[in-house]
Design goal:
Layout: E1 3-12, E2 19-28, E3 38-40, E4 57-60, E5 64-66, E6 76-79, E7 86-89, E8 101-108, E9 115-123, E10 130-137, E11 140-148, E12 159-164, E13 170-177, E14 182-187, E15 190-196, H1 201-205, E16 211-214, E17 230-238, H2 244-252, E18 253-257, E19 277-279, E20 281-284, E21 287-290, E22 296-302, E23 312-324, E24 331-340, E25 349-357, E26 360-367, E27 372-376, E28 388-396, E29 400-405, E30 408-413, E31 424-430, E32 452-463, H3 469-478, H4 481-484
């Protein structure tokens, strides 16, 4: 969500004692929870350095910004190669062969045939220019440290990724280890390939404090090079080597709501700053409290990663303190996930939901396009009222469905399925408001008999990948709600 601040400017009118007011809207980008020295979010339809406003950019050839971006909250830079669109950064970035760095970005809907330069930094004091270059060759990502501008795509002089990318959103990271002389590529948070440049001409020639261009090559003959046909979002530069753990977090943790105090229950502590909204929920010392059939907490418009087979993991703590059961078969909805298949679509369809019934936690998967309905309910953990439970639901089209209770596997459906569409998703905790005039506002489990419940949810996380059991146990250990409350 982009923040707009209204400013009022008062000015005197010459020759009178009257004053006039001019109202202007000032855009402020989201506060991303990542480590960076320079960050271009493009949220305000500009190439503004969100960290220090030092390294702002100038766009060429009528670049446009599109909404939504990867996270669904802001805008992304949309580059058209046919118009040779690109961005030049005003001040020289401070790369050096004595300084390590990490450059990361979201890239989406890229043209994946031929060669494309995404990021270029060239020493203009030499000719031919020596350039730090990152780009795409067909479906593979590449990086070179100080290639001659006349040999951008010479395979001998660059590092190719081992794995290809697809046309949906992907998170790319490029690293240079100045101590070891190694360049590396990460795709969606996972290490892909590295190359040792020690003793090579590329490392010896690398200067790195030249002109920087995003979306196209810096060249004396631009007609022979392809400009980027893609969307770019959240380009960040850090003058240090980020760990594999940090890069995996940036690429796969879609949102993380910690519910630490009453003033920021909607704030996402994850890397994407996805702002949530709610109704009839309350912050208490233990977390977020739900106490009516209309209590809900919602995050919308986010997406998951095709290259990860559209796998996702949902992890959270829950304590059900009271259920008003009038009949034994009544249920309570804990969360539901809805999906829409296009950016302009208004209606969401039911994707999955998680509920409690008969002292058992259930996960129901609904994929109408392939006719698959699954209920994972063989929970062997003894349910107790007013007791904290840690829940992890993993939905992997390639590996199956897993339900972990307190870190232990308690439900499994190991049949595989296929998702062939990239969705925009809507996640609701609790029970959403029902609008009878809008079918998509009905909860996904409207066929079940719902019961009034009271309870607390804490430390809610959504990952665009499959968590391992050891990762789940680490989350429980590091956020041990039961020992704190």
């Amino acid at each position: 969500m982009i923040i707009c601040i209204t400013a009022v400017i008062l000015g005197a009118v010459l020759g009178t004692r009257k004053s006039s007011s001019i109202t202007a809207s000032v855009c402020k980008s989201r506060q991303f929870k990542i480590t960076a020295d320079i960050l271009w979010s493009f949220d305000c339809s500009s190439v503004t350095d969100d960290i220090g406003e030092m390294y702002n950019g100038i766009t060429f050839n009528n670049i446009v910004y599109v909404n939504p971006d990867f996270s669904g909250q802001g805008k992304a830079l949309n580059l058209d190669s046919n118009k040779k669109q690109y961005v030049d950064i005003i001040h020289s970035l401070q790369f050096s062969k004595r300084t390590s760095f990490t450059i990361s970005m979201w890239i989406g809907y890229a043209y994946l045939w031929g060669d494309t330069v995404i990021f270029n930094n060239c020493d203009m004091n030499l000719y031919p220019y020596d350039c730090l270059t990152m780009g795409i060759s067909d479906r593979n990502v590449f990086m070179s440290l100080a290639q001659n501008e006349q040999s951008y795509f010479d395979a001998v002089n660059r590092l190719f990724s081992k794995h290809g990318i697809d046309r949906q959103w992907n998170y790319l990271s490029f690293q240079f280890d100045s101590t070891a002389g190694i360049i590396s590529i990460y795709i969606n948070g996972y290490f892909d390939r590295s190359k040792n440049l020690t003793g090579t001409e590329d490392l010896n020639k690398f200067v790195g404090n030249g002109t920087t261009r995003i979306g196209g090559p810096i060249s004396s003959n631009t007609s022979v090079f392809l400009y980027a046909q893609t969307m770019l979002d959240q380009i960040s530069i850090s003058y240090h080597l980020k760990s594999a753990t940090e890069l995996l977090r940036e690429a796969s943790l879609l949102f993380h709501y910690q519910f630490k105090n009453s003033s920021n229950i909607h704030d996402d502590s994850g890397p994407n700053a996805i702002k949530a909204y709610s109704q009839n929920v309350y912050y208490i010392e233990d977390g977020l409290y739900f106490n009516t059939t209309t209590s809900f907490f919602k995050a919308s418009e986010f997406t998951i990663i095709q290259l990860n087979d559209y796998t996702y993991s949902i992890a959270f703590w829950i304590r059900i303190s009271d259920i008003d059961l009038l009949m034994d078969n009544q249920s309570i909805l804990i969360f539901e996930l809805k999906a829409k298949t296009s950016l302009g679509a208004l209606d969401y369809s039911c994707f999955s939901y998680f509920y409690w019934q008969y002292n058992v936690f259930h996960y129901e998967l609904l994929r109408s396009q392939i006719g698959l309905t699954v209920s994972t309910s063989n929970d062997t953990t003894q349910f107790e009222m007013a007791k904290w439970f840690h829940i992890t639901v993993i939905d992997s089209p390639t590996n199956g469905i897993f339900l972990y209770i307190n870190g232990q596997l308690s439900g499994l459906y190991n049949n595989t399925s296929t998702i062939s569409i990239t969705y925009r998703l809507d996640m609701t905790l609790g029970t959403p408001m029902i609008d009878e005039s809008l079918p998509n506002k009905w909860p996904c489990f409207d066929s079940l008999i719902r019961a009034q419940w009271k309870g607390t949810i804490n430390d809610f996380r959504f990952y665009a990948r499959q968590l391992t059991q050891s990762e789940i146990l680490d989350i429980i250990k590091n956020q041990n709600i039961t020992s704190q409350k």
